C-alpha cells in the first residue's frame, strides 16, 4: 500500500478502514494479519509525513527564491 | 468632421498645399484641434466609476488624476474651484480610491507653446459608495460565473497535510501574524514561502496576481493562501480585480482566500478553492490536520492495530488449544462414563453374585438338609442294622470267648502239667546262670562256677566246689 502514490490522506483513510474492519471481528486470521501488516506500514508512512512538517518552521521569501532561481539558471545552462 | 475644415490656401497664385490622395485636407491643425474640442464636448455627459491613480493637486487651476480599472484608464481633470467645493480631505482622493465622477470628454487644443491634452472634465466627484462597488462587483461576479471560473479551483484536491505553503499577504501585517499563529496552534512546522505584495492600492492586484503565479510555478507549494485583514469594500477592492480573479481561477494550485472579515465578500472569495473568514481560519483550512492530534491519533491507531493483531492470534491460539483439549476431555468423559458403568456393573455383579450365592446357599441348604435327612435315616437304618449285627457279634464273641476260655483252660491245664514250677514243687531245683538262662548240664554249671538255684519258694546262690574231683573222674 505504501507506494509512491500514497498520500497522507489516502493512508489515514485506509488506516481508518483497516481499524473498522479489525474492530468488526469479521476478518479471518490471515486477513487480520495482513491488515495489521498493511496498517503498520501506513502508520509508519503517515508518521513520516507528520514528522516532515513537525521539526521546525522554515520561512522563505518568494522574491529571494526567484532571484536565486534566476541566478542559478545560467550556471545550469553552462 | 471630414470636409468641414477647408484648406486655407491662397487663390492668387500662392502655392497650394497638396494633400494625400484619398484623405481630405490638409487642414490647419489648430483649427482641427478646436473642432475636435467642440466634438469632444458634444459627446454625452456621463458618470464613470474607477480607481483613482496619479492624483496631482497642485497650485494650478486644475486637479489631475487618472481613473482606471482592469480594462483601461482615462485621464481626468477637474477645476480646482469645483474640487474645493466638494469639501474632500486631501487623503480622501488618493491613489487607490474608488470614485464616481460626472462630466464629459474635453480636449485642450494647446497652443504654439502649450501641449494639447485630452481629459475627462470632471464636474462632480464623490467617493464610490458601497452600493456602487457592490453593483460593479455583482456585474463582475455574474460575468466570471457565466464563464465558469468559479469551478476550477473547487475541483482541485487540497492536501490535508501540505509540506509547503505559499502565502500572499502584506509584509508585517496582522494577517501574517495571525496565519503563523494559527499554523503554530495546529503543530504545523513545514515550509512557508512568503509572497509579499501590497494589498490595498492600484498596484496590489497585479502584484498579488504575479505572486500567485510565481508561487504556483516556481515555489512548488502545495497550497496558496491569500490573506489580508478587514476593511471597507473600497479597501478590499484589489481582491475584486478581474485579472487577479481570472489568475486565481486558472491557477493549478489550490488557493485559500482569507480577505477581510466574515461579512466581507470579495470576488477572489468566489474563485478561490476555499473562502475563509479570517487568517486563522485560513491556517486551519490550509492544514486541515491538527498535527498534534494526528500524532496522538496515529499512536492510538498503532496501538489498536497491535491489539487487534495480537488478540486475533491469541483468540485463535486459545481456540486451537481448546480444540486440542477437546479430544482429551472427550476421552476423559468417556473414561469416566466407562468407570461409572464398570462400577455399576461391579455393583450389579456383586448383587447378582450375592443373589446367586444366596440362591445356591439356599439350594445347598435344602439339598444338604435333604442329604442330612437321608444320611440320618441311612445312619439310623445302619445303626439299627449295626445294632442287630453288634448283638449277633456280641453273642458270637461271647460264644467264641466261652469256647476260647474252655480251650484256654484246657491248654492251661495241659500247660500246668508241663510247668517246671510243678516239678520244682516236687523238690526239683533249676540251675540258672547269671544271665537267668537255665544251665542244662553239668558242664554248663561247672563253666558258670557261680549259679543260682531256683526252687519252690525262691532262688538261692550256688557254687561249684568239686571241680577237680569231677575233672579227675
How is the secondary structure organized here?
The complex is a heterodimer of chains A (78) and B (473).
Chain A: H1 8-23, H2 29-52, E1 58-61, H3 62-77
Helix pairs in contact in A: 1-2
Chain B: H1 29-42, E1 46-57, E2 62-69, E3 72-79, H2 80-86, E4 98-108, E5 117-127, H3 130-146, H4 152-155, E6 164-169, H5 174-185, E7 191-196, H6 204-218, E8 223-228, H7 242-250, E9 255-259, H8 267-271, E10 274-275, H9 279-286, H10 291-417, H11 420-425, E11 430-432, H12 442-448, E12 450-455, E13 458-463, H13 467-472
Parallel strand pairs in B: 3-5, 6-7, 6-8, 8-9, 9-10
Antiparallel strand pairs in B: 1-2, 1-4, 2-3, 4-5, 11-12, 12-13
Helix content of chain A: over 70%
Distance between the terminal alpha carbons of chain B, to the nearest Å?
Answer: 246 Å
Give the helix proportion of chain B (percent range).
40-55%
N-to-C SSE string of chain A, H for helix and E for strand: HHEH
Mean pLDDT of chain A: 83
Unreliable spans of chain B are 1-13
Rg of chain A, nearest Å: 21 Å
Keywords:
heterodimer, A: about 80 residues, mainly alpha, about 70% helix, rod-shaped, B: about 475 residues, alpha/beta, 5-stranded mixed β-barrel, 5-stranded parallel beta sheet, 13 strands, disordered N terminus
Gist of the model:
The complex is a heterodimer of chains A (78) and B (473). By secondary structure, chain A is mainly alpha-helical.
Describe this structure in words.
The complex is a heterodimer of chains A (78) and B (473). Chain A is mainly α and 78 residues long. Chain A is rod-shaped, with a radius of gyration of 21 Å. The mean pLDDT of chain A is 83. Chain B contains 13 helices and 13 strands. Chain B is rod-shaped, with a radius of gyration of 83 Å. In chain B, α6 runs parallel beside α7. In chain B, the strands form three sheets. A five-stranded mixed barrel of chain B has the order 1-2-3-5-4. Chain B has a five-stranded parallel β-sheet with strand order 7-6-8-9-10, sandwiched between helices. A three-stranded antiparallel β-sheet of chain B has the order 11-12-13. At the A-B interface, α1, α2, β1 and α3 of A face α5, β7, α6 and α10 of B.
Amino acid at each position: 500500500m505504501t507506494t509512491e502514490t500514497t498520500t497522507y490522506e489516502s493512508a489515514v483513510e485506509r488506516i481508518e478502514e483497516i481499524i473498522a474492519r479489525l474492530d468488526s471481528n469479521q476478518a479471518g486470521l490471515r486477513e487480520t494479519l495482513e491488515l495489521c501488516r498493511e496498517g503498520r506500514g501506513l502508520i509508519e508512512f503517515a508518521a513520516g509525513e507528520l514528522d516532515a512538517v513537525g521539526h521546525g518552521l522554515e520561512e522563505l521569501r518568494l522574491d529571494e527564491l526567484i532571484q536565486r532561481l534566476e541566478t542559478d539558471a545560467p550556471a545550469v545552462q553552462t | 468632421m471630414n470636409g468641414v475644415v477647408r484648406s486655407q490656401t491662397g487663390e492668387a497664385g500662392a502655392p497650394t498645399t497638396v494633400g494625400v490622395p484619398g484623405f481630405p485636407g490638409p487642414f490647419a491643425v489648430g483649427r482641427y484641434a478646436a473642432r475636435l474640442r467642440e466634438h469632444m464636448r458634444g459627446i454625452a455627459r456621463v458618470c464613470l466609476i474607477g480607481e483613482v491613480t496619479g492624483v496631482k493637486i497642485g497650485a494650478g487651476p486644475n486637479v489631475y488624476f487618472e481613473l482606471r480599472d482592469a480594462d483601461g484608464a482615462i485621464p481626468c481633470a477637474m477645476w480646482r474651484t469645483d474640487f474645493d467645493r466638494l469639501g474632500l480631505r486631501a487623503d480622501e482622493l488618493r491613489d487607490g480610491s474608488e470614485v464616481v465622477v460626472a462630466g464629459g470628454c474635453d480636449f485642450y487644443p494647446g497652443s504654439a507653446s502649450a501641449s494639447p491634452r485630452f481629459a475627462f472634465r470632471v464636474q462632480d466627484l464623490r467617493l464610490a459608495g458601497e452600493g456602487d462597488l457592490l453593483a460593479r462587483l455583482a456585474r463582475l461576479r455574474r460575468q466570471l460565473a457565466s464563464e465558469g471560473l468559479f469551478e476550477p479551483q473547487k475541483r482541485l484536491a487540497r492536501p490535508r497535510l501540505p509540506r509547503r505553503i505559499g502565502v500572499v499577504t502584506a509584509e508585517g501585517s496582522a494577517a501574517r501574524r495571525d496565519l503563523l499563529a494559527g499554523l503554530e496552534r495546529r503543530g504545523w512546522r513545514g515550509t512557508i514561502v512568503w509572497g509579499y505584495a501590497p494589498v490595498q492600492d492600484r498596484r496590489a492586484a497585479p502584484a498579488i496576481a504575479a505572486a500567485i503565479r510565481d508561487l504556483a510555478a516556481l515555489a512548488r507549494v502545495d497550497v496558496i493562501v491569500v490573506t489580508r485583514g478587514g476593511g471597507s469594500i473600497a479597501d478590499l477592492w484589489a481582491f475584486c480585480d478581474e485579472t487577479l480573479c481570472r489568475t486565481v481561477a486558472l491557477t493549478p494550485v489550490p488557493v485559500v482566500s482569507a480577505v477581510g472579515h466574515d461579512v466581507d465578500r470579495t470576488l477572489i472569495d468566489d474563485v478561490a478553492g476555499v473562502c475563509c473568514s479570517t487568517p486563522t481560519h485560513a491556517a486551519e483550512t490550509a492544514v486541515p490536520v491538527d498535527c498534534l492530534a494526528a500524532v496522538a491519533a496515529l499512536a492510538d491507531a498503532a496501538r489498536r492495530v497491535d491489539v487487534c493483531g495480537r488478540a486475533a492470534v491469541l483468540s485463535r491460539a486459545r481456540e486451537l488449544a481448546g480444540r486440542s483439549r477437546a479430544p482429551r476431555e472427550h476421552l476423559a468423559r468417556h473414561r469416566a462414563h466407562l468407570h461409572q458403568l464398570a462400577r455399576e456393573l461391579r455393583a450389579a455383579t456383586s448383587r447378582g453374585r450375592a443373589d446367586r450365592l444366596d440362591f445356591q446357599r439356599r439350594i445347598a441348604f435344602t439339598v444338604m438338609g435333604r442329604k442330612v435327612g437321608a444320611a440320618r435315616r441311612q445312619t439310623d437304618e445302619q445303626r439299627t442294622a449295626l445294632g442287630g449285627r453288634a448283638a449277633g457279634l456280641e453273642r458270637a464273641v461271647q460264644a467264641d470267648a466261652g469256647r476260647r476260655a474252655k480251650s484256654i483252660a484246657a491248654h492251661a491245664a495241659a500247660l500246668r502239667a508241663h510247668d517246671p514250677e510243678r516239678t520244682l514243687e516236687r523238690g526239683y531245683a533249676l540251675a540258672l546262670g547269671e544271665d537267668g538262662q537255665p544251665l542244662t548240664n553239668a558242664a554248663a554249671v561247672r563253666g558258670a562256677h557261680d549259679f543260682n538255684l531256683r526252687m519252690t519258694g525262691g532262688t538261692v546262690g550256688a557254687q561249684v566246689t568239686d571241680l577237680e574231683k569231677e575233672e579227675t573222674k
